[in-house]
Specification:
This protein has 185 residues and is of the alpha+beta class. 25% of the residues lie in helices and 13% in strands.
Length: 185
């Protein structure tokens, strides 16, 4: 329990200020910053909250799909079924689409596979089109890491992309940018 800096009255844990003076108490964990919620500063609160959270399993993602599926499809730039479908949302450094669900980021291609085919059995979801930002479920296959590496070797990509040649979907292009004001397909 912290105390009001003006009157010395105890401020119960979980409260951030003295009712009478409105003065903010300090974080009960670090003591360096003003308490915001549950007697903790923002930084300590986030750390404590994340300790209690774990990423959702594929089954849990499918069970809660109504919460995140509309957000997923808002970021998909659909084209003909045989072509790549782009991702207009956040991307990782490797150019893979990412979607935040309940404080964790999930690969957009993995979510696309999950929605279309169900829970994957292998270790990785491989792009047969070699475009990391593609979320077309027809371009995604359940695979092992070994199969993924064999595919990369067969396509001459094991040591990365040739110098000067851009990887499909690579940043610097607005190819997947959804035009503003356009209706969702």
């Amino acid at each position: 329990m912290s105390e009001c800096q003006t009157c010395g009255i105890g401020i119960p844990r979980g409260r951030s200020h003295c009712r009478q003076h409105g003065i903010v108490g300090m974080c009960s964990k670090c003591g360096n910053r003003p308490a915001k919620a549950k007697g903790l500063c923002n930084a300590c609160y986030v750390v404590e909250r994340r300790k209690k959270l774990t990423p959702l399993t594929a089954a849990q993602l499918l069970a809660t799909r109504e919460d995140w599926e509309p957000k997923f499809w808002e970021r998909v730039v659909r084209g003909p079924v045989t072509e790549c479908w782009g991702w207009s949302g956040t991307r990782s450094k490797g150019e893979y689409g990412m979607l935040g669900i309940r404080d964790f980021s999930y690969g957009a291609h993995r979510l696309s596979y999950l929605l279309e085919h169900g829970e994957p059995q292998g270790e990785v979801i491989r792009h047969v089109c070699d475009n990391p930002s593609c979320v077309n479920p027809l371009h995604l296959v359940d695979s092992t890491q070994k199969e993924n590496m064999e595919d990369a070797k067969a396509k001459g990509r094991l040591n990365g992309w040739p110098k000067g040649k851009k990887r499909p979907g690579q940043s610097g292009s607005n190819h997947w940018k959804k035009p503003s004001g356009q209706p969702q397909v």
